[in-house]
Structures are given as C-alpha cells and as structure tokens.
C-alpha cells in the first residue's frame, strides 16, 4: 500500500507530513497527518515512539495539527505524532440520513460497524489500531535517519469523541498492552448512558446494548484487569457546554469503583475551560509529559 505525500510543512523543529492512502478496511482513500519531531532528522540509537491523537466530532486530521500545539512537545521529548481522520469519506460513503453532525461522516466513533449501510466503510477500529500502524511502519521503513515505532512503543490520546476512542481502544486492547498510556481531553466517558453514544452505538452496532459493551469504557473497566501501575489522565473543563449532559466523566469514576481501575483514573476538573482547542492546547504539555514518561523518554 502506498501513501501519497500531499504536503510537507516545516513546523517547530520538525516536519508535518500530510498523507493519504487507500484503505482496505474502509474501502476508501484515507487522510492522515504525521508529525516527525526534530529528533527524527538526527541519528538515534533507539527508535522514536509514537503518540496517536484521535479527534472529535466534525473534525479532520487538520484540527489538532493546527490548533493543539503538540509539535513543540513532540520536539521536547522526542516522540512522533499521528493524527488519523475521524471517519471514511468520499463518494458512496453513507452519511446520517438526517444530516446531523453527531453521526456519519466525521463522526465514526472509531468502532467497527456491524449495521447496514455502515459496515462496509465504517471499520475505523480495525483501521486505526491495525491497518494504519502497519502501513505507516512499511512506508517509513528505511526513510530518514531514525526508525519510527508505530506499533510497539505507542501511546494514545484524544479529544471528545476522540477521547472516547482513546479510552475505548486502550481498555479494549489492554490485555495485549497495545498502548503504553492513555489520556483524554473532555472525553465521552460512558457512551451507553448519553445521547451521543446511544445514537452512535445504535446506528453502527445495533440496538442491543450488550453489543455496545466491548467498546464502552464504562463497561471495559470491569472487563479488564489493571496490572497494578497504569493510570489514565483526563482533563475536563467545567465551562464545557457538553460536560453535564454528554461527557459526564464522573460516571467513569463511579464505574471504576471496586475494580482494578479504582483510584487509577486521574480526573482533573479545570475551572472555566470550554470544549475548544483553547482548552486542549492549554493542557497538552501536561499530557505530553505523562505520555513521555510512559514511553520511556523521561
């Protein structure tokens, strides 16, 4: 599989690469942005770890690349960044028939859909956590002065719907220790209990709530055993208009009670912050340090 380089942009001390490639999982052309830190351009003894960032509803790979200010932190610690798209796109890709912004194109919820007409293209869980890392590894192999580790030494974070996607993937794949660490900005923490999640899960996975549990962080906490040291970092603004009705991070804390994750979720309620990238960018340095420690960079 071949990536097309659409643009290379000098950014901070490194380079942002805007790529596209045909995906077998989604059956569409997929866009992805990759930030190569300054360390990539100098010979490294060890491979450079990778942080995956999943964006929220209505977003594309451009939003966080332009507004989250991850690049200076990537240069500071020496990790690369991958910004996948939020859904398949293109002619023939089914969208929400009601043309709403919280379902369909740019709102995949990062699951592998099982329902028509979405299951053909909306295979986003398999795409992001299986196909994309393998294809990026092959594409960047023997390029540049340093090796990039897209598969083994990786961490995950995200915002809003992407925060849910990060929590879901971290916990769902936890037994195999796919991701070294997980953090989230204003995530949808227990989608089975809020309208955004119920609509998405019902549309992509069907109306039987039992089929939602393998993706729902609130249930996955009870199905996965923490090995004893792993923690999850979350920031949530109290001025976020979605905080009380769609995000509800306290539900995740409640769900963790009595499980191996009890006391392992570091929820930070930050006064006055909203849902925007002003909020995200403010706390990116804290999340970057958290992941750098878990990736062995500090």
Describe what you observe in this structure:
With 298 residues, this protein is an alpha/beta fold. It has one domain: Rossmann fold (3-Layer(aba) Sandwich). Helix content is 31%, strand content 19%. It contains nine helices and nine strands. It has a six-stranded mixed sheet. A hairpin with a 6-residue loop joins strand 2 and strand 3. Helix 6 runs parallel beside helix 8. It is globular. The model has no long low-confidence stretch (mean pLDDT 96). It comes from Lachancea thermotolerans (strain ATCC 56472 / CBS 6340 / NRRL Y-8284) (Yeast). Keywords: Cytoplasm, Hydrolase, Serine esterase.
* Low-pLDDT windows of residues: none
> Can you list the strand order of the major beta sheet?
1-2-3-5-4-6
Structural class: alpha/beta
Task: Provide mean pLDDT, rounded.
Answer: 96
Shape: globular
Number of helices: 9
CATH superfamily: Alpha/Beta hydrolase fold, catalytic domain
* Order of secondary-structure elements: EEEEHHEHEHEHHEHHEH
Q: How would you characterize the largest beta sheet?
A: 6 strands, mixed
CATH class term: Alpha Beta
Topology:
Elements: E1 4-11, E2 14-22, E3 29-36, E4 50-54, H1 61-67, H2 71-77, E5 80-84, H3 124-140, E6 154-158, H4 161-172, E7 182-185, H5 195-205, H6 217-223, E8 232-237, H7 243-247, H8 249-256, E9 265-270, H9 277-294
Parallel strand pairs: 4-5, 4-6, 7-8, 8-9
Antiparallel strand pairs: 1-2, 2-3, 3-5
Helix pairs in contact: 6-8
What is this structure, in a nutshell?
The protein has 298 residues and is of the alpha/beta class. It contains 9 helices and 9 strands. The protein has one domain (8-294): Alpha/Beta hydrolase fold, catalytic domain (Rossmann fold).
């Amino acid at each position: 599989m071949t990536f097309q380089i659409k643009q290379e942009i000098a950014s901070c001390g490194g380079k942002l690469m805007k790529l596209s490639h045909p995906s077998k999982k989604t059956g569409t052309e997929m866009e992805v942005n990759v930030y190569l830190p300054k360390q990539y351009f100098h010979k490294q003894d060890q491979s450079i770890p990778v942080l995956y960032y999943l964006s929220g509803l209505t977003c594309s790979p451009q939003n966080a690349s332009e507004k989250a200010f991850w690049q200076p932190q990537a240069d500071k610690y020496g990790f690369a960044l991958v910004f996948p798209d939020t859904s398949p796109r293109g002619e023939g890709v089914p969208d929400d028939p009601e043309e709403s912004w919280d379902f369909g194109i740019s709102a995949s919820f990062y699951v592998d859909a099982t329902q028509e007409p979405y299951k053909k293209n909306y295979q986003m869980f398999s795409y992001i956590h299986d196909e994309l890392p393998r294809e990026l590894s092959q594409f960047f192999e023997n390029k540049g002065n340093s090796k990039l580790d897209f598969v083994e030494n990786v961490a995950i974070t995200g915002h809003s719907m992407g925060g849910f996607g990060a929590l879901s993937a971290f916990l769902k794949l936890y037994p195999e220790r796919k991701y070294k660490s997980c953090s989230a900005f204003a995530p949808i923490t227990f989608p089975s209990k809020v309208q955004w999640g119920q609509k998405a899960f019902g549309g992509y996975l069907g109306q039987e709530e039992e089929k939602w549990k393998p993706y729902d962080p609130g249930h996955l906490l009870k199905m996965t055993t923490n090995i004893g040291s792993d923690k999850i970092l979350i920031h949530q603004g109290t001025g976020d208009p979605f905080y009380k009705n769609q995000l509800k991070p306290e539900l995740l804390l409640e769900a963790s009670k009595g499980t191996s994750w009890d006391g392992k979720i570091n929820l930070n309620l930050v006064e006055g912050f909203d849902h925007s990238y002003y909020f995200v960018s403010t706390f990116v340095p804290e999340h970057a340090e958290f992941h750098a420690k878990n990736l062995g960079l500090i």
